[in-house]
Amino acid sequence: MIKKNDELLLDITSYTSEGYGVGKHNCIAVFVPFALEGEQVLVHIIKVARSYAIGKIVKILKRSDARIEPSCKFYQKCGGCDLQHVSYDQSLKIKQQIVKDAFAKLGGLKVEVEEVCESQEFMYRNKIAVPLCTDDNAQVSMAMYRKSSHNAVVIDECLLAHKEITEICKQVVELLSKYFEEKEVFKHLVVRKLKNGALITIVSSKALDARLLKKLFAALSSKFESLNLGLYTCKKLMDNNVILEGNIKHVAGIKNIEIDVLGINVEIAPLSFFQVNFEVMQKLYQKVLEQASGYREVIDAYSGAGLLSALLAKTAKHVYGIEIVKEAVENANNLKLKNNIKNLTNICKDAKDALPKLINEHKDALLVLDPPRKGVDKSVIEAIKNSKPVKIIYISCNPATLARDAKLLSECYDISYVKPFDMFSKTSSVETLCVFTLKL
Hints:
- This protein starts with 6 loop residues before the first strand and ends with a strand.
- By secondary structure, the chain is α/β, with parallel strands linked by helices.
- Helix 8 links the parallel strand 19 and strand 20.
- Helix 1 packs parallel to helix 9.
- The chain is flat.
- The strands form four sheets. Strands 9-8-7-10-11-12-13 form a seven-stranded mixed beta sheet.
- The chain is 27% helix and 32% strand.
């Protein structure tokens, strides 16, 4: 029987979906953050549940050859990264195993998983959102939350973000401290940089003085002369985990960033969804286009703001994008017009309602699924199983829900291809492309 505050000697034999090491004591699994497979560790038990326990490393008795010194001075304090203590090659193997284990343990499916598509290790994020804190000296600082908490850790850099994003964040908090008297109103700072454009959004609990904001923007523009800057404010009243909501107002500079994605011109605004890792996103979409080659008609469910639909329209005869959020469909139609795309129809409906009719009318169409983390709604899965499109390309940011949905689809489909992408280097998160083919 394991009890809280016990100290146990464990051999680490595998990993959880969060990249924690797993050891066993009297057949009970003990999850150990920052422990690596092959290591022997002395752990202090900090939590005991019915079927598992969680332990904290006290001492490493046998060290893995893959263990390295973390590059970030805030690692294990800030909750942004999980895998800085392991070599990059080994982190890719861990992610490959996470995907394979999800299919096996949650889906009951044995699948071949390709090697993980690599990323730049650091400075790959084109966007960060950092909490803002004020100290006793009335100085504003950027922070990150400890893992699974709202306890802020003050930082002065994030090694995952583009270097210029960190420099912009530093300058903004310095100017907020200098120009504004009420510091406690500042909640978050959101910065996105792509190519030579950067959008800055200051999130606060009350409206900010327009004159001081213009002064702040002028100082930023002088500091970053090589960048086209845009400044926004977000007055946020709700106490929830959604950072950008409420009254979002453009203050000065550019309103959006224009960028070319594999031949499609895209405008990115503060509320636009856009993958944080631009290079890996392009590799993922290129692989999707390869898998979609040869299909005259494509149905893109969960099509969002329409970027993937637009890319698919470059080679297909016609593409149908399905999205339930009205604002996203409006953005998709604007993207279609901006790029003069004629062979794309965006449909504002729930996928479960639109799919059966579309698939029955276009029986040879390819189906593309790119759902949120919660995966595909069960009603949509049932509609797919009833309509039986010949091939499905599924893009997932959550191996657990992908495996769950794969199990449901396995009655009618075989899995022919699984390729993970390291969209979020140094974290345990992984993007996965999965291809389903209709059983004969």
